[in-house]
Specification:
This protein is of the alpha+beta class. It is built from three helices and four strands; from the N terminus they run E-E-H-H-H-E-E. The longest helix has 12 residues.
Length: 110
């Protein structure tokens, strides 16, 4: 066992992740080194883990209200809100946009 004073220092994670240099490059610590992040997927994961983007809010390319299982959605809506979709004063696409399930006519990746 070593003799002398032992100090343990805990440095909390910062709140501004991911960290970027003044050129906009993103760096991550890898062991005792650091490396530049170049993979789009890794950058997306970093932004998602920092709650800057949410994977379930990324548009699902090519999916519209026509691709929706309307019967399933109507059952879900009635179960959760106690009213039928047909009783609403707004159209189904507007309901979906208000619920953050669609944006500009494109389904989101929920």
């Amino acid at each position: 066992m070593p003799e002398g004073l032992v100090m343990v220092v805990t440095v909390p994670d910062g709140i501004s992740k991911p960290y970027m240099d003044n050129n906009g490059a993103i760096w991550v610590k890898s062991g005792s080194d650091k490396r530049k992040v170049t993979s789009r997927e890794e950058i997306q994961r970093m932004f998602q883990s920092a709650a800057l983007i949410h994977g379930d809010e990324i548009p699902a390319s090519g999916l519209t209200v026509a691709d929706l299982d309307k019967d399933y959605f109507k059952t879900f809506f009635e179960k959760n809100f106690g009213e039928s979709v047909d009783e609403q004063d707004i159209s189904l696409p507007i309901i979906l946009e208000n619920m953050n399930l669609m944006k500009d006519g494109v389904s989101l990746g929920h």
